[in-house]
Design a protein that fits this description.
It is a single chain. The protein is of the alpha/beta class. Strands 1-2-3 form a three-stranded parallel β-sheet, with no helix packed on it. The protein is globular. The model has no long low-confidence stretch (mean pLDDT 85).
Length: 75
Amino acid sequence: MSYWTVPPKWVGETVFILGCGPSLANEKSLWSLQDHGRVIAINDSFLLVPRADVLYICDQKFYNKYYPLIRNQFQ
């Protein structure tokens, strides 16, 4: 079996990966992350950082529920 490999696009850059959960309660500090590196938002953490570089969605149910918000708010 062969797996896809992510191409190295951000070599040498800092990357922040934002999961969802209560540890992200202080949303004001998240806006400044993009001044310090790349941001990957997982599931609904895109609501806190709509300018993230990548949105990773873990399941179809989430996508179906949030699609209108993703389309309107994720940049």
